[in-house]
Specification:
alpha+beta; 3-stranded mixed sheet; globular
């Protein structure tokens, strides 16, 4: 059975570094749960998981779903994924903590609007948060 996994930055290093009190642990766990976005489609056999503190709140400040066409999002994602994966493969030139996972995105597959919307916005968030320029 073929599975396509798109996993983006599962854990930030700084979130694992310090031991916290129980009350702080519980609040960070609930914040992580709020910032985890998972979309799966069993018929297409793909899954996208975005675990990034602050992403969900940031997403609420962006253009709403339906603002961009799916073809626009697919085109942008094609370019973003190509550059992102190029940086994953060039770990000498790019920070391997930022570019640790390849994104398995095939532009010939119709992932649907929601996946393309979230992936596109993740790239915008990534560029802004980490001061990167992928395009």
């Amino acid at each position: 059975m073929k599975f396509i996994y798109i996993i983006i930055l599962a854990v930030l290093l700084h979130s694992c570094s310090a031991t916290k009190e129980n009350s702080n642990e519980n609040s960070s766990i609930s914040k992580s749960a709020e910032d985890t976005i998972r979309i799966a489609n069993d018929s297409l056999e793909y899954e996208i998981i975005i675990v990034e503190p602050g992403f969900n709140a940031w997403l609420q400040t962006q253009r709403p779903r339906g603002y961009y066409s799916q073809s626009f999002l697919e085109l942008k994602n094609k370019f973003y994924v190509t550059e992102f994966n190029s940086r994953v493969n060039s770990s000498i030139d790019w920070d391997p903590n930022l570019y640790s996972w390849r994104i398995d995105y095939n532009p010939r597959i119709d992932y649907g609007y929601e996946v393309n919307y979230l992936l596109y916005h993740y790239f915008l968030f990534f560029e802004e948060k980490y001061n990167q320029n992928l395009l």
